[in-house]
Design a protein that fits this description.
Layout (H helix, E strand, L loop, with lengths): L3 H28 L3 H26 L4 H4 L1 E5 L2 E4 H33 L3 H26 L8 H14 L1 H16 L7 E4 L2 E8 L3 E6 L4 E5 H6 L3 E2 L7 E9 L5 H16 L12 E7 L4 E9 L5 H18 L16
Antiparallel strand pairs: 1-2, 3-4, 3-7, 4-5, 5-6, 8-10, 9-10
Length: 339
Amino acid sequence: MFEISDWMFTLIGLVIICILYIFIRQLLRHLLKTEKSKAILLAILNWSTLFVLIIYTVNYFSDSQWLFDPFFTSGSFSISIFLVAVAIFIIALATRISSLSKTYILPSIYDKYNLEKGIRFTFNSAFHYVILLIAIIAALSTLGIKLSSLTVFASVLGVGIGFGMQNIASNFISGLIILFERPIKVGDRVIVDNIIGDVDEIKMRATIVKTLDNERIIIPNSFFLEEKVINRSYSDTRLRLVIPVGVSYESDVEHVEQLLLHSVEAISQQWPTILKTPKPSVHFVSFGDSSLDFKLFVWINNPIYEFRIKSDLHFMILKQFRQHQIEIPFPQRDIHMSS
């Protein structure tokens, strides 16, 4: 049985810790101006307070056998509740450090060197796994597990991966290749099975592609290394738009060409992504059954705006044709009836 004085002493200590925590937290909120520094220091304060509480609790129960007595023993090492709590704290702290670094510290470094979105994601993933690996090694060492003793387990795991987890292992290795070789990267516009989407996230097993309808397609990483995938952002983000147009045989073809180029010039004021070099061009494609067929070629430097620019071009071309009485004919067929 604990004495009342011990309980009172412990309660007073906890109250003092809580008061100091609240006071320092409010002080930081008033003194710090930027949200970035405020978030970092508040996170440090939270974890420091948690660490103090853990030390305080361990000190209070220092005479308790249940906290330090091993509940599992195997060979030369034994595990107690205290060691498990320390291991969990190490992994949780490493995860929090990784999260804070990716949110507040690493972006400033990326901005300094003007790194693109895909490279940022690769570095974030590598940093997270390195921190987590170090934390796991430290946690295992805290539990008294020597890394040399894991060689047998690693061998068994390797056999299991080789025979029973071939698909998972293939996707895992493919994910590593994608992250470092970068045939695709976060932010790229890709076409998979005639579906257009943007690479939203590259995980260790699968890649998430967000379609234009805001749907997510989960694609195994091995697919991108084994199948044909169109990447519109691989080395050059420029994209050529093709606008097919048909006009009646009575139309002035030179006038049609001028109107098509004028339509591009009219919308280029609101779409700076339309390139002046290569210049927009009009090709007289063929003499169709019902119309004279043209194709308007326009280059843009960002494939994300492909459909919106096409739509605006269609609106403008139709407006120009109607203003200048250029007819877009319906399909026509001549029927000859024999008596």
